[in-house]
Amino acid sequence: MLDDENFKVLLKAAQAGDEAAKEWILKNNLNLVRSVVHRFMNRGYEWDDLFQVGCIGLIKAVDRFDTSFSVRFSTYAVPMIIGEIRRFLRDDSPIKVSRPVKEMAYRVHRAQEKLQGVLGREPNISEVAKELALPPEEVVAALEAIQPIASIYDQVFHDDGDPIHLLDQLTYTDGQDNAYFEKLALREVLMRLQPRERLVIHLRFFEDKTQAEIAEKIGLSQVQVSRIEKHALKIVKEHLQTY
Prior knowledge:
243 residues
């Protein structure tokens, strides 16, 4: 690998049209793309597709990097790669975002890239808002509107063979589940469960607690709570089939 000064010389040559220099930089920074692509897996896209999109971000980083910035090239390139993949996911999303919002989000991303080079770190919302002379809430709204869609079945983490999904972190606020279970004579069925199973089901569906909250309350891990809940619901389902 080259030291910073020699790398900047090579980068300037690449920006001036030296294809061999550009090829060398791209080839020796592909690990940046690979590391970023890992963050976006399990979203319904092939690895190769996201890798190719990430490479476009890397190419843009080579073309746009200002050697006067007091930051390393990798510090500048990673947000560019992330931004390119996010734009791909946003544009390919089934949820359509209006053109003015997309344009606002593009301005925000450009401001983030500029401030990233100047500050040597990710800028916060207030700094981006000041750069664009916009209220912070407008910056946040533009960024939120173009976030990729998350499925309730997305895996949050995996431990000891039992995946924890986003669905397991959600709470219910409309009260419909309680009414549903009461109609199925759940009270009688719950009495057939072991005390710990009955407690988990009660906290989960009657007191509207998440698995994480239940785990903290009864002194178990979230994985253990997930196992207890699944086993208890299996028993409940089997008994309800007899009604």
